[in-house]
Each structure stands twice: as structure tokens, then as C-alpha cells.
Specification:
- The chain is α+β, with helices and mostly antiparallel strands.
- It folds into two domains: 291 residues, Zn peptidases (Aminopeptidase); 127 residues, Alpha-Beta Plaits, CATH 3.30.70.360.
- Helices cover 35% and strands 23% of the residues.
- The protein is built from eleven helices and 19 strands.
- Strands 1, 2, 3, 7, 8, 9, 14, 15 and 16 form a nine-stranded mixed beta sheet that branches.
- Helix 2 packs antiparallel against helix 5 and helix 5 packs across helix 11.
- The two termini are 21 Å apart.
- The model has no long low-confidence stretch (mean pLDDT 97).
Length: 424
């Protein structure tokens, strides 16, 4: 347990650096690190790590290095600009417990800019909120890891154990960035991932899977539409059948998600098809994101999806003889329940109590995070613990600054207690 005087000094050090932390977080948010465009933001993080005299590992992910590993998800775009950055602190004499502070640099697309109050990559502060795409998910949390490290440094201290600050890509679609860190050899006795958890820690997350359904049709001139087969319209019963599967899975309630009325969600997130307005469309492809409970293996999930698509297609005159194709890309993410982390959880509970003067809530999410890589494949308790944010993946995304300050305090206090401290 931390000395009370040191704990008060750490909280004060976070507060003293918070204005600079917000300025840096806004600067990072201004960099549009969309999928495949993360390199400039990763340069930003690498520069900040070097400025703290951390040992910086800045490398391009090679798919061939990770595609054989558990947890790998298939990719659909080039990795030519897929760079990870890790800044490592090594103590003079390792006395405490090692730690990974992990966050992702990639952000999701903005949607139409005219639906934002201000341009999404022009961050601004309004009251308690920092606005901008990626401000909440999760650049505020990513930079909070470095700000927590800075707080100890401001007191003339450094962690008395190895600490790896990781800025990774691909969290929003595969998780392969975190997997590449494991392949690179980075390990620790605990990990913190400051995703926007609303001042809580994550106790469980669902599995998530992405796939496409590709349908073919018979093109004819629309004047003779009845003699063709419309691939776009044929997608409707397939989609409906998949939603029926969604409802069946939701009926098999899981106790961890008992407070959620509808934890399993199937979403048609993208659809395209056809080539010409006056031709019956010969093709249609729709993308779907689904989720599933612990205990449902990936192979079983894929089989049920494929059986559902096949059965729905059998009732269609054209698709019965030209069945749709199911193609997997992106997330093939197993569920994760936080286990074997009692010591780390107790340490975080103590740090949170000091920062918030409240007990640490524990929640289950209907999404996924990179925590699964540490917990499932590296036997490392992964504590997903981050600030209050709103409208992530939506318009006018924002993060609460008062929450961010306390979360940064919590991370700094955890680091000092978990790792111990030594003079800089």
C-alpha cells in the first residue's frame, strides 16, 4: 500500500501537469489516425517517448510474423503504414512488479463532417469536455499513461520495475497491433488499458466477429426485371435470418451480462451492390458485425452463421443453386473474462479509492478490447480502466476532462504501488 504522503504528492503532480496533458492530448487528437493512416500519430508518440529517455521500439508490423498466432484476425488492407511504438522504462534495479500501459492510436471514420458541430479533427475544449474524433476512444487514455509516468518524474521518481508504454494500431478492426507486441516479446505482470470505461474497470467483454456475405444475381434490363434475380433484394431475407439468430442467442442469457437487456448485437454496417440503375443488380455484398458470449467457440459461431445463411438462401429460387459466400475479415475476437488478477485488481481498487474517494465499479461491456490478448494468450491480468466519454464512434465525440484527471491520478498511483519507485 502506498505511503499516504507519497500518494498525495502523486495526485498533486498529476494536477500540476494536467494543463499540459490536455494540450498534448488535443494535439494528438488533431492527427487523423484513421486505419492505414496512423504513421504520423505514431511518430508523435515515438517523439514523446524519446523525450522521456525511454527505449523506443518503432516497427512496421509484418503480417507473416503474426498470422499463425492465436488471436490473429485476417486483414483486408495493406500494412505498409501499420507501425507500432513501444517506449520502455528499465529501472536501475528491478524491485517491483512489471507493467504494460497499452492504448491504441487508430480511430474510426468520422462520417459526414456536416453532422459534426465542428470539424472532427479540430479538437476544442468546451466546459468539461475535449471534443474530437478519437478524443475519448482512446487518445485521452493513451496519453494519460504517459502523463502518469510524467507525474512520477515530476517528483524525481521512476518506477522500480520495467514499464512498457505501448501505442498500437488496428484495435478498432483486428487487434493485430496488440498481438504484434506479444510476438515482439513484450510481457509484464499486469497491463492497464485506459479505454473509455466511465471511471470503471472492465470485468468481461463479449466475443466479436466481422464477416461479409457475398451474393450473386442474374442481370437483365429492368424492363424485363422479372426474368432476372436481384442480388440486392435477395440480401434482405439473409439479413433477417441472421437477426433471428441474434435473438436466439440473446435468449440464452449469460449471468455476467444480466443487467444488459440486449447484449448480443448483429449490425449490418456496410452494403454495396449493382453497377447500373437500369440493370437488375448482379451482385451485392454486405458487412456484418456480430457478438457472442463466453463459451461459444469461434468455430461454432462461424458454423452457425454459415448454416443460417445457407438455410435462408435455400428458399430463394436463384440463391438455392448459387449460394452466397461468407468471407471473414477483421475481428475474430474471443470473449474475455478477467480472471487471476486479484492482486492487480486490489491494487487498482486502492489507487481508484485515493483518486476518486469512491469504490471502483466493475462492469461488463458488449464490445471487445485488446485486453483479450493479454488475458487469453499471455496469462497477464488486463485491467481496462479509463475515463468517461460520450459519442465514441458517433458525432461530436468527447471526453470528460475532470474524469480524465482522476483516471490519470489512478494510473499514476497504481504504477507507483504496483511497480514501486526509485529515485530518478
Amino acid at each position: 500500500m502506498l505511503d499516504q504522503s507519497l500518494a498525495a504528492d502523486i495526485i498533486g503532480a498529476v494536477n500540476a501537469g494536467f494543463d499540459a496533458q490536455v494540450t498534448e492530448t488535443a494535439a494528438l487528437t488533431a492527427l487523423p489516425s484513421l486505419r492505414g493512416q496512423e504513421a504520423t500519430a505514431q511518430d508523435f508518440m515515438a517523439e514523446r517517448y524519446r523525450a522521456r529517455n525511454l527505449a523506443v521500439d518503432h516497427w512496421k508490423i509484418n503480417v507473416a510474423d503474426i498470422e499463425h498466432l492465436p488471436g490473429f484476425s485476417p486483414v483486408a488492407i495493406s500494412y505498409d503504414n501499420a507501425f507500432n511504438v513501444v517506449g520502455t522504462h528499465r529501472p536501475r534495479e528491478a524491485k517491483g512488479r512489471s507493467l504494460i500501459l497499452n492504448g491504441h492510436i487508430d480511430v474510426v471514420p468520422t462520417g459526414p463532417h456536416d453532422l459534426w458541430s465542428r470539424p472532427p479533427f479540430q479538437p476544442h475544449v468546451e466546459g468539461d469536455w475535449l471534443y474530437g474524433r478519437g478524443s475519448g476512444d482512446m487518445k485521452a487514455g493513451l496519453y494519460a499513461c504517459l502523463a502518469a509516468f510524467d507525474a512520477l518524474d515530476r517528483l524525481g521518481l521512476r518506477p522500480a520495475a520495467p514499464v512498457h508504454l505501448q501505442s498500437v494500431v488496428e484495435e478498432e478492426c483486428t487487434g493485430n497491433g496488440a498481438l504484434a507486441c506479444l510476438q515482439r516479446g513484450y510481457r509484464a505482470e499486469a497491463a492497464i488499458i485506459p479505454e473509455p470505461m466511465g471511471d470503471a474497470v472492465l470485468k468481461a467483454q463479449l466475443g466479436v466477429m466481422w464477416f461479409q456475405v457475398k451474393l450473386r444475381g442474374k442481370p437483365v434490363h429492368v424492363a424485363y426485371a422479372g426474368t432476372g434475380s436481384n442480388a440486392i433484394e435477395a440480401a434482405y431475407p439473409i439479413i433477417q435470418a441472421l437477426h433471428t439468430l441474434e435473438e436466439r442467442w440473446n435468449k440464452d442469457r449469460h449471468e455476467i451480462w444480466g443487467e444488459h437487456k440486449h447484449p448480443i448485437n448483429f449490425v449490418v454496417s456496410k452494403i454495396e451492390g449493382g453497377d447500373w440503375t437500369s440493370s437488375v443488380p448482379a451482385w451485392c455484398t454486405f458487412d456484418m458485425r456480430i457478438s457472442f458470449f463466453p463459451g461459444m467457440e469461434l468455430a461454432r459461431v462461424r458454423q452457425e452463421v454459415e448454416d443460417t445463411v445457407r438455410a435462408a438462401a435455400a428458399g430463394h429460387s436463384y440463391l438455392a443453386n448459387n449460394p452466397p459466400q461468407v468471407v471473414y475479415h477483421g475481428f475474430q475476437a474471443e470473449p474475455y473474462v478477467l480472471k487471476n488478477g486479484d492482486a492487480a485488481i486490489a491494487c487498482l481498487e486502492g489507487a481508484h479509492r485515493l483518486a476518486f474517494n469512491a469504490e471502483l465499479p466493475k462492469i461488463a461491456t458488449t464490445a471487445t478490447t485488446d485486453a483479450r490478448f493479454f488475458g487469453l494468450y499471455a496469462d497477464t491480468p488486463a485491467l481496462v480502466y479509463g475515463p468517461l466519454s460520450e459519442d465514441i464512434h458517433g458525432f461530436d465525440e468527447r471526453v470528460s476532462l475532470s474524469s480524465l484527471k482522476k483516471i490519470t491520478q489512478g494510473i499514476a498511483l497504481f504504477m507507483a504501488d504496483w511497480c514501486g519507485v526509485e529515485k530518478r
